[in-house]
Design a protein that fits this description.
One of its GO terms (molecular function) is DNA-binding transcription factor activity. The chain has helices at 3-18, 25-32, 37-43, 46-69, 79-96, 98-113, 118-137, 146-169, 177-191. By secondary structure, the protein is mainly alpha-helical. The radius of gyration is 19 Å and the shape is elongated.
């Protein structure tokens, strides 16, 4: 592994352990086993390195989340049962990898402070909405209507973020897939 790859790996480790704001150049260099000057040489700045490491973590998180969300094809479950199981799988994945969820929330915070990040965040959210709509409608992403992306995809992404934040904030009272489905049914009665 070269210095560049070692720095990315070290930055990933620091982001997951300490977060963006608390990670120093010294932390990254120590974790990578290289000099602090290598950061400037390969990435120009601590922030550029941390952003690249952050996007790398988010790509990995997206892969993990995507696997939790895609229903297994061998099931004879009803759509509601499959949706509940999808939530249970997603919440299990979030419990297993809480730091990845925290890093995704940190990207939101950093994008508010650093305008160069905002287009990346916006693009990621748009992709997430489109992917969610495709998964829930069981169609290829290219076949999802813009209306579904703006409604079904948006609501699912919002639910995921909110439910996982609640679970990470209060693990003793973590919601289940059954809780999410029951809550949605109650909302449907209200908005019916």
């Amino acid at each position: 592994m070269g210095n560049r790859e070692a720095l990315l790996a070290g930055a990933r480790t620091c982001l997951l352990d300490k977060g963006f704001d608390r990670t120093t150049v010294r932390d990254i260099a120590t974790a990578a086993g290289v000099s602090m000057a290598a950061i400037g040489y390969h990435f120009g700045s601590r922030e550029n390195l941390l952003f690249q490491a952050l996007f790398s973590i988010l790509d990995e998180w997206g892969d993990l989340s995507g696997r939790a969300l895609v229903p297994d094809g061998a099931s004879d479950a009803s759509p509601a049962e499959a949706y509940e199981r999808m939530w249970d799988d997603l919440l299990a994945q979030a419990r297993a990898h809480p730091k990845m969820w925290l890093v995704s929330m940190e990207l939101f915070m950093q994008a508010q402070r650093q305008p160069d990040l905002l287009p990346h965040l916006t693009d990621g959210i748009r992709q997430g909405r489109s992917g969610m709509a495709a998964i829930l409608e069981s169609v290829p992403e290219s076949d999802v209507s813009e209306r579904s992306v703006r409604t079904l995809g948006m609501v699912q992404v919002a639910l995921m973020s909110g439910v996982v934040i609640q679970m990470l904030s209060d693990p003793e009272n973590a919601p289940t897939g059954a809780d999410v489905v029951a809550g949605l049914r109650a909302l449907a009665r209200i908005t019916g």
